[in-house]
């Protein structure tokens, strides 16, 4: 079974990586830059340098990603920098990471999308450190490790949004990642929604498109905060002008009728057998995927000692 994931994949030449790293390093060292206060400046520095050094074919792939409805993009061999120990308690000193923050926000800018944070999650900060936090042990969270994350989409308890809307009010359209370290070699798995829907009978598809479900916020949201309330009378599959969109998190989705419950069970069983693509991110890799059309998961893993534990940097963008 081959996955229908349409992935744009490019790898920078070592020479390009080095020139890009040198230019960005020079530009960010003159002053302290922090992601939440200085996002626009970091994006400007990163986007300028990327536009200057990336090959035309790669820049074209980045520019076209969202308009050509690709599922995901992987850009490898970007500059790295000297990295501190993995901040396994959640947050570290962001000003030490200005080079990779400039790259991350620069790429988001070139992709033509807007990074955003919400105040009821991740302390309201733009960059989420995806790390094995000992305090999240046993939970299905981006700070967990020992529990498997079943197939899901992020923040499915929000309505879907369209281009031009305030992104904070809606399901994040895209998840973007920069990989700092992944010595455990834990893959991020992506699956195209089409591969699941195509395996469903018509009745199940219809039931999943009926407003018969309640979807609660994931555990990473601050309980009780405005914006982190359950979404009632919602469908799991919604038709839009661009095609079907999916919201799903097994742990937080409840069916309101027996028929909806049967469809939910069929959906969950189908996800367990659909084809997917495993991306094992390495230091210097950037990945983006469409959270409206891609389901993702991560299997349980045993983290390295905190100094070298798996560390991805995630930012929502719409
Ligand atoms: Fe997730």
Automatic annotation (TrEMBL):
TauD/TfdA-like domain location: 110-316
Alphabetic keyword roster: Iron, Metal-binding, Oxidoreductase
Keyword RNA-binding: no
InterPro entries: Clavaminate_syn-like, TauD-like_sf, TauD/TfdA-like
Record-given protein name: TauD/TfdA-like domain-containing protein
Organism lineage string: Bacteria, Bacillati, Actinomycetota, Actinomycetes, Streptosporangiales
Family: Belongs to the clavaminate synthase family.
The keyword Nuclease is annotated on this UniProt entry: no
């Amino acid at each position: 079974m081959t996955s229908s994931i349409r992935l744009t994949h490019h790898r920078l030449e070592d020479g390009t990586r080095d020139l890009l790293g040198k230019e960005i390093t020079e530009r960010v060292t003159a002053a302290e830059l922090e992601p939440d206060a200085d996002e626009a400046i970091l994006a400007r520095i990163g986007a300028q340098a990327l536009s200057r050094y990336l090959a035309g074919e790669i820049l074209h792939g980045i520019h076209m990603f969202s308009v050509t409805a690709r599922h995901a993009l992987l850009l490898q061999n970007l500059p790295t920098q000297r990295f501190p120990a993995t901040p396994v308690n959640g947050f570290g000193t962001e000003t030490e990471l200005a080079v990779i923050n400039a790259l991350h926000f620069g790429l988001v800018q070139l992709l033509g999308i807007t990074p955003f944070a919400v105040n009821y999650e991740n302390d309201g900060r733009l960059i989420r450190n995806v790390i094995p936090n000992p305090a999240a042990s046993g939970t299905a969270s981006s700070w967990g490790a020992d529990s498997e994350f079943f197939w899901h989409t992020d923040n499915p308890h929000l309505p879907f949004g369209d281009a031009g809307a305030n992104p904070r009010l809606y399901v994040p359209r895209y998840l973007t990642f920069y990989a700092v370290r992944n010595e455990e070699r834990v893959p991020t798995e992506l699956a195209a929604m089409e591969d699941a829907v195509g395996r469903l009978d018509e009745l199940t598809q219809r039931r999943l498109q009926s407003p018969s479900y309640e979807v609660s916020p994931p555990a990473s949201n601050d309980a009780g905060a405005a914006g982190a309330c359950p979404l009632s009378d919602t469908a799991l599959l919604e038709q839009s002008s661009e095609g079907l969109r999916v919201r799903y998190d097994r742990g937080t989705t409840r069916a309101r009728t027996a028929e909806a419950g049967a469809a939910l069970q069929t959906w969950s069983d189908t996800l367990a057998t659909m084809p997917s693509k495993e991306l094992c991110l390495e230091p210097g890799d950037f990945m983006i995927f469409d959270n409206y059309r891609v389901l993702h998961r991560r299997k349980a893993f045993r983290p390295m000692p905190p100094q070298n534990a798996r560390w991805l940097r995630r930012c929502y963008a719409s």
